[in-house]
Please model this.
Amino acid sequence: MIGAIAGDIIGSVYEWNNIKTTAFELFVSRSTFTDDTVLTTAVADSILKKIDYAAALKAYGRRYPHAGYGGMFMKWILSEKSQPYNSFGNGSAMRVSPVGFAFDSIEDVLYEAKRSAVVTHNHPEGIKGAEAIAAAIFFARKNHDKNEIKKYIIDNFDYNLDQTLEEIRPFYRFDVSCQGSVPQAIIAFLESDNFEDAIRKAVSIGGDSDTIACITGGIAQAYYNGVPPAIVAKVREILPDELMEVVDRFNESMDIQL
Model:
């Protein structure tokens, strides 16, 4: 899942300052982690400790209250109740990468992806986005090729993956829905040549740059068998120790090589 976190940190600078090119500095002084990283780590910790997804998400959200959550999610974090609010936002997809790495059958991956989503994002599109990304990560780490991954996603989730980035980029605008950002993030992965290239392509789409790059980064880590050491080193510099400790425990537990 460190690939997802790297995507979040790299994309954080460009969320409200979109660029439409792959030529940019990966890390600058303002690069930081956002809610995408916090909640991805929460899902990983939930899996490691076998605790309820909602409880973990709330605990981490309250610990990092200024990470940039959406308004409805912030209300949910602070509420004493844990009822979902029918969201189809891309938050369900950006936090799901640990699920794709942790389970060893597609049935279990889809089941857990849905469980991780429905605590907040119980709209069908919110569930679909989480399931699609977890499935893509699962098949990527099981050494399926890009055509196989693409076909599975199209056949099972009916996303349009036939557009190219060249077609998407000029007209793409900020869209926090799963249906308006998950396919674009997958396409950035499909067109990539390596992990760094995947992140650069994801950010170059524009829109919700940190989340799109976070989603792309999880798939790219699985497909390219890791994250470049220089990028991992920068993530370690930026991430608080307690979050990095969860990442390291997750990687060790799942035998994930960086």
